Structures are given as structure tokens and as C-alpha cells.
Amino acid sequence: MRLTTRETQVLQHLANGLSSREVAKKLGISYHTVKSHRKSIQQRLGASNFVHAISIAMAEKLIEGDSWH
């Protein structure tokens, strides 16, 4: 399943360790928008939780795999 460009950006930043509030500030969007993107990402990837979503995205090379610590 493909993610939108914005969802991919949000996911990459979260995988890099930023908090949702930090991602919102960095991307110039609201905290609630980040939360909405997180929910959408999880649903699109069929993940049971957000950590699972990051794992799936890394496995499918949707985000940089070496960036998650």
C-alpha cells in the first residue's frame, strides 16, 4: 500500500525519533494533523500499532530503514 508524500514525511520523522509535536512544528502542521496521519498510516499499512507500521514501512522500503534506532 502506498502512502501519501506527507504521510511518508511524517512517518520518516517519527521513525527518526521525533515526537508528534516536534513533527508538527517541523512540517508546519498541527499536532492533530500529525495524529490523523499516524492513524491513516497505521490503517493503510494494516499495522496493529504504530511501531508495527514503522517496521512494515522499513521492510517495504517506504522509509529509510537505517534511520530508526
Number of helices: 4
Radius of gyration: 11 Å
What is the total tally of β strands? 0
Percentage of residues in DSSP E strands? under 5%
Helix content: 55-70%
First-residue to last-residue Cα separation: 24 Å
The structure class reads mainly alpha
- The overall average pLDDT, rounded, is 92
Q: What is the helix/strand order?
A: HHHH
- Unreliable parts: none
Shape: globular
**Largest β-sheet summary:** none
Topology readout:
Layout lengths: L4 H11 L4 H8 L3 H15 L4 H10 L10
Helix pairs in contact: 1-3, 2-3, 3-4
For the structure shown, list the relevant keywords.
69 residues; mainly alpha; 4 helices
Characterize the structure shown.
This protein is mainly α and 69 residues long. The protein is 64% helix and 0% strand. Helix 1 packs across helix 3, helix 2 crosses helix 3 and helix 3 crosses helix 4.
Concise description?
The protein is mostly helical and 69 residues long. The chain has 4 helices and no strands.
